[in-house]
Amino acid sequence: MSTGAGIDYSVWDHIYVSDDEDVTSPYVDTSSLFRMRHRARLERMAEFQHSGEDLENNFAECKRLLEKAQGRLKELEEEGRNEEEEAELKKVQAESVLNIKAVTKEKEKIEKHKTFVETYGKEIKHFGLLRRWDDSQKYLSDNPHLVCDETANCLVAVCIDFEIDEKHALMEQVAHQAIVMQFILDLARTLKVDPRGCFRQFFSKIKIADKTYQDAFDRELELLKGRVRSCAQIRMDSAMKELEEEERQKRLGPGGLDPVEVYESLPKRSQYRVQQNGLHQSVSSSLCKEIQKSFDEKNIQMLQIAINKLDPEEGKYHLRRCIDSGLWVPDSGEGDDDDKEEDEEEEED
Prior knowledge:
By secondary structure, this protein is mainly alpha-helical. Among the domains are: 120-251, Up-down Bundle (Methane Monooxygenase Hydroxylase, Chain G, domain 1), CATH 1.20.58; 259-344, no CATH class. It contains eleven helices and four strands. It has helices at 30-128, 133-142, 149-164, 168-191, 199-207, 211-251, 259-264, 288-297, 300-308, 312-325, 332-348, and strands spanning 2-3, 6-7, 269-276, 279-286. The strands form two sheets. It has a two-stranded antiparallel ribbon with strand order 1-2. Helix 3 packs antiparallel against helix 4 (168-191). The longest helix has 99 residues, at 30-128. The protein is flat, with a radius of gyration of 53 Å. The termini are far apart. The relative contact order is 0.04.
């Protein structure tokens, strides 16, 4: 079989391959055996095919269940987000309600204070001007409704008004009574009782007070005076600024400029050249007084001479500011000529 060129495979050209069906026993009916084996093979093939179909069906069912689970998970996530959004919304609404309640409570407090002051304003001021401990105690005994926070706040407001009116002695007297009322309220909070039921206890204590208690009272009084002076100064400064702004708005000229500001911003000095003895010389001129004097005397010729001493662009700038502020109201003809000149210059540019 073997040659020098290699293995000879020709011996396998006519080989016969048979399956185990060819091997039969002489005691067995071959055709019956073949049919039985063929039927068994078909059954196995059918079973295998059925198993494949079941597998495909199971796979499809699993895929469907997976998609359903994913869809449900997405719904739960959406519901979770919605719940979070709803919880956040409820939180915001709760905060809004609390803010509204706080604002409403503050408005009610302000309204209550306003009503109380309108009703008992005279009695409060009368208490604020009392000097003796016994007089203060008797007055509060006759008017126990004054022992409250509204009275203390009102006394502080009266102090500020007196300080603004430069009635310093009255401010200090009312400040003393404001501290008296504050100490009564502090004592009530400490004892956890109604302040109307403990103001007598305060007066009994202050009349025989030791140095520590008296020093604390005097220290609080000085602090209050300082706060009253500071607050009064802030209010006066604010009122002054508002008044100055109102006056400034009234002064504004047709171009929206303040004549006072324009008047004070006029050029101080200017360099211009003149010809003298055939030579050009630089001359320094003080223009501020000249221009201001021309406005004071309403001398248009003097104003024109002073403006002509400026650089043309600078002169035009200040002249326009004077017109916009109302310092100078040119004749209609002059105004038209100026507008025409400006239009021509813009066209040339």
